[in-house]
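hi!! sorry for the late reply, been swamped w classes. u asked for the two structures so here they r. pasted raw, havent cleaned anything up. first the sequence of the first protein and right below it the tokens
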Amino acid sequence: MADYTVRKEDIALLKEQGMVAEDLEHSLQVAEKALEIGRRMQGDLDMVLLGRGALFHDLGKTTTHGITHGLLGAEKGADLGLPAAVNAIMEKHIRGGLTEEEAVELGLPVKDYTLHLLEERVIIYADRLVDIIHDGIVQIDDEREAETRFKEILRDEIKYGKNDITTERYYRYHDEIQSLMKIQAS
């Protein structure tokens, strides 16, 4: 598993596309959190995809903060020549990977947006954790507490889970990722 560090060129590209400071800070935080989680996991993750996918996941917010920002980000990423796997992360990250039925309910193009790659699920998990850690809605003492209390926080704060289907999806990602964590020496 080759490690990865966020590239200055990618940050510059986000700025060139008009990403505002708050969204850029969030994207950087998600990239760093995804990479940190990836480093703690067993298995062979594509750290470049993990870092770049997390960094660019909200590229569409340069156009809108609405539900279509994932689709718009993927289109913009394709126009910019970003890798297809990074564009797929942008397109599918809304609510952690929608089914066709959920896409219809939200007025998105009918297709399956579910997450098939572990890297995609780690990015979504990191995105939720960053929101919990930095929003200030839930009092936590350190970043790891957001992981240990993840299910409780999603259950108690609808902002993070959105609805029952999305919350259950996030619970599955949490369980899967936590089960792949390397045992940490105390």
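now the second protein. again sequence first, tokens right under
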Amino acid sequence: MLATITQALPRLSPSERRVGQWILEHPKKTANITLARLARECETSEPTVVRFCRHVGLGGFRELAIRLTEALSSPATYVHRDVSSDDSASDAVIKVMDASIQSLIEMRSQLSLMPIDAAVVAMKSARQIAFAGLGASGHVASDACHKFFRLGIPCSSLSDIPMIVQFASITQPDDVLVTAARPSLH
């Protein structure tokens, strides 16, 4: 949840950004605070706090408290554990594994917000599937293409903007374009 808030900050209004920054600075306190008190602490209104919650993909303030409680109960949720040059090899491996586990936990908490069933239906009946990604996401798109190709599904991998634009210009209603990018809450 805290990573989701951090990613959303640049897209928020100034008053909503104050709410997000306050939550990031006081995650434990926020999990047990009232809506009115949070609004006062952030020098904003209660509707602004509710808008903030919706902009980060939550149904409302109550869900924020629940998600924060879940996040805080997971080890290393709000402790940033980057690998440094001073780490031993075993410490570095543990940090990488912890980050991977935490990413999976965060992904699981967001699954209900994702249109997975609709995506599966669209992909099952697709004439062709194109996986698109730029930069490092291009590798993810290429890997997905290889996996679907091995299943016998017509697909391609698009790793630069001209290729994506060209594909988009010739698509038909039963074509599917899957982008490999950071999740967006909008």
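hope this helps!! also noticed smth abt the second:
The beta strands are 128-132, 155-158, 175-179.
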